[in-house]
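REVIEWER CHECKLIST
Item 1: Sequence provided? yes
Item 2: Single chain? yes
Item 3: Sequence as submitted:
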Amino acid sequence: MVENLFAANENVTTEAISWNESISETNHSIVTEFFSLGLSNSQELRIFLFVFFFVFDVGTVFGNLLIVITVASDSHLHTPTCFLLANLSLIDLCLTSVTAPKVIPDFFRKCKVISFKGYLAQVFLLHFFGGSELAILMATAFDRYVAICQSLHYATIMCDSVCVGIVAAAWGTGFLHSASQLAFAENLPFCGPNEVDSFYCDLPKVIRLACTDTYRLDIMVIANSGELPVCSFVLLIVSHTVILVTIQCLPSERSSKALSTLTAHITVVLLFFGPYIFIYAWPFSVKSLDKFLVVFCSVVTPLLNPTIYTLRNKDMKTAMRRLRKWNMNSRIKS
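Item 4: Structure as written out by the authors:
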């Protein structure tokens, strides 16, 4: 009887030791790559999405590149407003360049793999350019506020040094926001599942795969990623409300022009901030809706932003006509 008890105890002890060793080995194993589940398993839908992404990405690259080149080459556009628009287009161009080279080929790959370092790099760049774009949109709102509400002092307030400082602060804001995001995930232990239910790299998705309790980390990431767009959105709505009140006191000609410009700004704000607030700050997550909003943010918004701003800016349209005529004349002479 005693021998049986000792034998049973030895078996239990041996099993416990082997179990602890296996857990220890698992905890110290490192995930070196992640597998993306993509948007759909349907071949027809993937072909449609490939065409959709390709067309919008090509339009985004050429459209934003055209705006940057036009502003840089035309001296008539060396104004604070066009300087901010050129930076907005540059950021949208960078955002597209970060996601498109990986997302578009993945539509025809069965195994959508990205290395752990590549995943973190894409997370860093997405939040860097995304945070910078939030700040640039706030800067354009400030530019419109000064132009409409403080028109007599516009040249003094929006001087070259102030514009450069605003843009530098916007890029710096994006860097700080992105660095804080990367700090959350860099030292997380990944030892088990490595399938990400998304088609692009995002921090909340990968945090759920960590081999540790991530409740507090989820709260910190949501606060960090959600606080910036929510606060920016509130400030923009307040500033646009002040501008609307000021417009009512202007003469009819000036008020109609200012209202047209303001409508374009409000449209961009709603299209850009709305999806981000639902993705990062909305407490109730719906997978299908989240994926749709992510597609809208990553593909449609970078093309709509410069399109809406450019079509509402007469100076920009005039400069593009001059650039086109100059290009045609240079071809004829050659």
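Item 5: Key structural point noted by reviewer: The CA atoms of residues 196 and 206 lie 7 Å apart.
Item 6: Recommendation: ____
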